[in-house]
Amino acid sequence: MTEEGFMLTGEARARQRAGGCHLRLLRESREITRAELAEHLLSVTETFVADVEAGHIRVPAELTGRWALALGLRHDALADALGRLYDPLPFDSYWTKAAA
């Protein structure tokens, strides 16, 4: 179940875990602890960061920019990567139409 109360399919759960794993690897590659990241994000706890990285919840859209800044990434690059991991079909469909 997600925080909204919706049941996730096995595939959706796996995509959410993949997004969390990607974020964890980015954080670890920069040698930033969960506590340090939470401090940079200002409004979240270390437990929240752990839940996102474990794939229990997604990064809320309103935090993507701050998450990217804390990891030294461009906002659009992180949003693109998470979009492809969290929702590959809608994401690819949108960009295919936009490129046409």
Automatic annotation (TrEMBL):
It comes from the Bacteria. Residues 22-78 form the HTH cro/C1-type domain. GO terms for molecular function: DNA binding. This is Transcriptional regulator with XRE-family HTH domain. It comes from Roseospira goensis. The lineage of its organism: Bacteria, Pseudomonadati, Pseudomonadota, Alphaproteobacteria, Rhodospirillales.
